[in-house]
Each structure stands twice: as C-alpha cells, then as structure tokens.
Fold this sequence. Notes:
This protein is mainly alpha-helical and 151 residues long.
Amino acid sequence: MLDTQxxxxxxxxxxxxxxxxxxxxxxxxxxxxxxxxPVSAAMLIAEKMPELGMTAGEAAAMTGLAPVSHxxxxxxxxxxxxxxxxxxxxxxxxxALAAACHNPVLKPIAxxxxxxxxxxxxxxxxxxxxxxxxxxxxxxxxxxxxxxxxS
Length: 151
C-alpha cells in the first residue's frame, strides 16, 4: 500500500514539474548531471533555490554546506556545516553519494580525498558542494552536463 502511495506522489510531482515549461527545462538540465536524479531535481526546483545563480560560496551557505567557525577570543574551534535548508541538504547528500561513485568528474575528487585520509562525512560534504556548483553552472548556461571522462 505504501509503495502505491509513493508511486502516486512521485507521478504527481513529475506531472506538476512537466506542466510548467521553465521547471521542466530545469529538471531536464539538473538530471543531466550524473548523481542527480528525479528526486534531487524535484527538491531543488521545489525549494526554488535562489542560490542557483549565485556564487559557489553563497550557494553553499544557503544550503548549509559552508563551514562555520566556532571561535571565541584566542580559542580556535573546529569548522562544521550548519544552517541552510536541512531537507534539501539531506537530499543532496544522497545525490553526492551516487555522484561520488558514478560521476566521472567527482569520482576522482572523492577518491583523492579518501586517499588523504579525510573522514567520510567531509568527503560527502565536499562532493555535495561541488554538485551545487555544477548545478549552478549548468542552470546559468542552459546547457546539459557533459562530464569529462578520464578526469
């Protein structure tokens, strides 16, 4: 019963996106990025991310992917991500997991970070930030993703 309801809701979301030409175009462009599927594209469109069109740093901050310092006086704390749109960030984390394995541009970056001994969460956050940067660039140019094989 739940599977039927999920399928029905997914069809409704696809229908709503397809009805508006601008949203349908954005969804098609976003889904051209390896790692971003229908759910991630729908979430990016639903959140009406104004960050897509901003600088990479601004987009990262709006999605809660920018490092926030925990400093006080002479004490230097560790940096952690905070704020932004939590639901969107979690969907993008899932997209980043797929991109780290299947995106020919992002896979080598994830591999290099892992070889340097970076923690798994740091790798996923880095890939997520790169994914937002790529999505931003693709929506600005209006051209679908064409990953460079062998990077």
